[in-house]
Amino acid sequence: MLGEYRIAGRRAAEIAASVERAVGAGELQPGQLLPPMRELAVCLGVNPNTVAAAYRTLRERGVIETAGRRGSRVRSRPATTGREQARLDVPPGVRDLSDGNPDPALLPPLAPALAAAAEEGDLHKVLYGDEPVEPRLARLARAGFDADGVPDGPLAVVSGALDAVERVLAAHLRPGDTVAVEDPGWGRTLDLVPALGLRTAPVGVDDEGPLADDVRRALTGGARALIVTDRVQNPVGASVSATRARALRAVLRDHPQTVLIEDDHGHGIVDLPLCPLAGVTRHWAFVRSVAKAYGPDLRLALLTGDAVTVDRVRGRHRLGPGWVSLLLQRAVVRLWEDGAVDGAGVAAAYRARRDLLIGALAERGVEAHGVSGMNVWVPVPDETGVVARLLHAGWAVAPGARFRMSAPPGVRITVSTLGAAEAGPLADAVAAALGPAPARSYV
Fold first, then answer.
1. Quick check: 439 pLDDT over 50?
2. What is the pLDDT of residues 188-239, one digit of tens each?
3. Does residue 140 or residue 59 have the better pLDDT?
4. Distance (Å, rounded) from C-alpha 78 to C-alpha 98?
5. Which helix H or strand E contains 346, and what residues bound it?
6. How far apart are CA 155 and CA 299, in angstroms?
7. What whole-number distance in Å separates Cα of residue 369 and Cα of residue 381?
8. Bond into 184 cis (ω within 30)
9. Which of 415, 422, 362, 424 has its CA nearest to residue 234?
């Protein structure tokens, strides 16, 4: 079953370390079946409970997965192997449209806001035990949530959207629980869930957001949490419509114990209305980060939710980093108050670039998607071949494998810096890389 490799150890920690060491060295391959616990216990001369404890540790670390009577296998993508390793090496002279970054020209200068925040910090030193949330930031955030129909709730400040997702999941779930996630979806979320020892249940996505029937199937099947990207979904650019929001709320009403996490990381660069789902379930969290509008290095996100969820997040946060720097919080206040970003203008710029490429692809008979954000998703029959042919033609795009589990293949094209003169040649290259093909769909 394991070829030449022999699992060793007498204690649970030693057995788990033996397996993890073999996975890291490539001696145990992704998908490889491990021995049944009782069989391995006999081989090692230990109690079956010892092997069970070792396997449990490996599951919690995201090294293996267990599927009931089908046994335990090395994860097809171990949690320690991030999807970012699928990133392309872009040769010199190739136009890089694979990185998912915002247009630097549309980001505001940070020096004035940081200098003002630092000057304020010099006058009023931040000390241990001070309030962890800047009051002006809390007021601005709450006003924004109210304007968008997000239910009232306490506020926490964390280090980015993914930090918020991790903290909420850790506050409510235990290793082995299942989380319903978008597929295609944000690659780092798809890595984070198994890294926490949790299982993923894929949910299909179209231009209007997660498919209600898929969400119902996942929750009926035992998923304890659901992560939804409200707008600027990565990689397909979906935005939850009012119609889809009603359908999803109806599903969630039938599963009120679901932990709902909504990610609005596209706030500030999107011109589509927010249709929040929060308030239907007992436990919910709504996350709004500032990285896309003000710059990826501003590691700050605002989290609101039900009292229990936010209290748990705050409590655990106090035991670790303690708080997000008040310097950064005050800088964000300055950026907001000064109107450093023309949100409507940024959204319009990204929309124009998306529409230009999607239109050019449509003229060439190529299906593409992207109703919000800075990316366009193109369904393809063979990711590897298309990515390689485009690279040869001078264009680097991201392979869809970084963003999907069971969804059909595709490629993600970041259009944030795409020039008007580039859309036609890029569309020609994509059409040539695809070749004649029937209609494709990512659902």
1. no
2. 999 999 888 888 999 999 999 999 999 999 999 999 999 999 999 999 999 9
3. 140
4. 23
5. helix 343-363
6. 17
7. 16
8. yes
9. 415
Q: What does DSSP say about strands 155-158 and 301-305: parallel, antiparallel, or unpaired? A: antiparallel
Q: For the chain, what's the residue count? A: 443
Backbone angles phi and psi of 379, in degrees to 5:
-65, 140
| pLDDT number for residue 58 | 86
Q: Residue 315, Cα to own-chain centre: how many angstroms? A: 24
pTM summary value: 0.84
Q: Which of 237, 222, 239 lies closest to 179 in space, CA to CA?
A: 222
Distance CA 325, CA 320 (A): 13
Spatial separation of the C-alpha atoms in residues 8 and 246, rounded to whole Å: 54
Task: Take residue 15 and report the two structure tokens written for it.
Answer: 């057995």
Contacts of 402 (CB under 8 A, 6+ apart): 83, 84, 86, 87, 187, 412
**Mean pLDDT for the chain overall:** 92
- Per-residue pLDDT reduced to its tens digit, 354-387: 999 999 999 999 999 999 999 999 999 999 999 9
Tokens of 145: 């949530």
List, as one string, the DSSP characters of 172-228.
H--TT-EEEEEES--HHHHHHHHHTT-EEEEEEEETTEE-HHHHHHHHHTT--EEEE
CA distance 279 to 276: 9
Rg (CA), the chain: 23
What type of residue is 345?
G
Q: Are 205 and 143 in contact (CB under 8 A)?
A: no
Task: Work out whether strand 410-414 and strand 398-399 pair parallel, antiparallel, or are unpaired.
Answer: antiparallel
**DSSP class of 74:** E
Q: And the tokens for 21?
A: 């060491």
Torsion sign over Cα 177, 162, 76, 399 = positive
Q: 377 with 385: CB under 8 angstroms?
A: no
SS3 of residue 116 by DSSP? helix
Q: Which tens digits make up the pLDDT trace of 261-306?
A: 999 999 999 999 999 999 999 999 999 999 999 999 999 999 999 9
Task: With CA atoms as reference, report the closest residue to 374 among 234, 184, 205.
Answer: 234
Q: From CA 163, how far away is CA 290, in angstroms rounded?
A: 13
Q: Is 382 exposed, middle or buried (0-12, 13-18, 19+ CB in 10 A)?
A: middle
d(CA 217, CA 251) in angstroms, rounded, equals 10
